Amino acid sequence: MGSTDQVYKIPLLQEGSSQEGMGMLILSAALPLISTGPHSWLSWTDTVSYQYIIVFVGLYMAAIGYGALKPCVTSFGADQFDHTDEEERNRKSSFFNWRYFTLNAGSLISGTIIVWVQEHEGWLWGFTIATLFVALGASVFLLGSPVYRYQRIGGSPMTRVFQVIVVAIRNFSKELPCDFSLLHELPEQSSSIEGSKKLEHTAGLKFFDKAAIVLSSDCESVGLIDTWRLCTVTQVEELKILIRMLPIWATMIFFCTVLDQMSSTFIEQGMVMDKYIGSFEIPAASFQSVDVIAVLVLVPVYDRILVPVFRRFTGMPNGITPLQRMGVSLFLTMLSMVSAALVESKRLQIARAEGLVHREVAVPMSIMWQGPQYFLIGAGEVFTIGLTEFFYEESPDAMRSICLAFSLATYAAGNYLDSFIISLVPVFTARGGNPGWIPDNLNEGHLDRFYWMMAGLSFLNLLAFMFCATSYKSQRATRTA
Known about the structure:
Shape: globular
Strand content: under 5%
Number of domains: 3
CATH superfamily of the largest domain: MFS general substrate transporter like domains
Number of helices: 14
Oligomer: single chain
Structural class: mainly alpha
CATH architecture of the largest domain: Up-down Bundle
Strand order of the largest sheet: 1-6
CATH class of the largest domain: Mainly Alpha
């Protein structure tokens, strides 16, 4: 491993951004207390104005820090395993599983303990405790500094990508040599990109090969090569790998669209169901904890029980491939939509039988019937950990953090796609006095049809994924030391 500690410093900087954001949220919660003091120089109007500004700035700072921290910490953690050691390489797959376990454990704490504190003691205490947890995490991270393995940084991966695109466009009219060994590559055994292995030339996407065409003007300036005029084969292959992973990435967007139903239509559905178990009321939004609990239960089951069982049949150290895990996750989320559709069909049937169609009230059907749809999504999340593993394993050595960030972008894209679909549903279903599928009063609507549509789209997406997965050829074998 390399000796520089720059990769190590990046998560610390991002942790600092999160801490500053949380600090601003604490300040926003404290402002009303400050303004009511006997020596306060702030009016109530000023306090509210400042509070809004501080809240939004704090939220954005925390989001930027966390958004950048997540892929870097994941990549840094996976880099602690020696890729040349078979035993450590096999344990790396478990690392991805337990990383997701800890994320959900944190989610459970924030959704229970922190929420309870905020409701009973106020936002100031809630934000303060959350900030202390962030500080504790940073401290634990620092404690491991003496034993970490540090990877060298190979420069900006996005700069290399743009260099290939620019040079390929500039050489658009040039002819590729019949012998691809004539394309530019350093004669040394190691790559020109620090921390990365050389990548052998692969067929396909030949347009980008033009970025490595050696021109006569390049030959005259040996040792002074401008990387904005001539790229190496390894640089070109980095971009090719990213492009070849794009179809897999695109098919996982719809998984995140289904995942987003937990914070939208599932809650709306739960609000018009019987939320009481005896005298205890279950808030519809809190039922998302079933998903978190499913993940916390199933990650150890998968890692300790299912992987050895799969290994016995497949002979593979990790049981099944990351692509196979992703396929299972898409299948399970499709089943979740089927379960939600069946529950909603039954709920609407009861609403009609009880004469509640035109009344915006809860139907006498227990919210516990939502359990299977939440559980199936949680099970799907356990298998979709393969997405993180896939992007880490398949990405070029010096592009792992950016590729992991790219994989996480599926969640953002999925959220936007969900918003787009839900905004289109009333346009096509609420016509001629028809309330549509998702009206304000769900008893008058047909949320079940929406779920059936999502199940159908999930099935089509699964077929598209299977085609992309079977067509994908791993590039790990093309890497040389």
